[in-house]
Amino acid sequence: MAPAMYPAKPSTGDPPMLTADQTIALFEGLRRAQSQGRYAPHKPLLVLLALARIQRGETRLLAFAEVDQPMQNLLAEFGPTGAAKSRHYPYWHLDRSLWQVNGPATLVRRALGATPNLSELREDGVQAGFAPEVDAALRSQPALLVRVGQRVLEAYFPATLHADIAEAVGLDLTPP
User: Fold this and answer.
1) CA–CA distances in Å: residue 164 to residues 49, 70, 96, 170
2) How many Cα atoms within 13 Å fall on the side-chain side of residue 80?
3) Cis bond upstream, residue 7 (ω within 30)
4) I need a labelling partner for 155 at 20 to 30 A (CA). Which of 61, 144, 161, 171 fits?
């Protein structure tokens, strides 16, 4: 059985091209979990990791197994104590206008609040990545990718961590 996509969108060939402003707007205001007055860095870190993959010319979709260890390392270094235990949350909970999740229909059709556990994401071959139109815009406009990366860093992390985080995810913020 072919993997399902969440949400199921009809394919019309090439994704529609987003403008730079439309693309940036999708990254504005990532909804993040909050605990004891601190916002979780999970989603911004995953976004930066995915941006770096695009910059290196890697595939759009990545299996959870490919992101599991890098997210664990990033959260151990840049997140609050215990954050690495929930490293799979952003992979599942990023805004669906920005992020696409593919996998078995029984899994991806769950209610958004029904987060799969680490084993389900690994064993069921779940893949995720930026939505095709977001990916296409970022790949076709390297300067836009750098702008998005800079804006995510500025919005969600103190300036003192920007260079360290960019290096840790492998993102080159030098304008093309």
Assistant:
1) 13, 14, 28, 10
2) 10
3) yes
4) 61
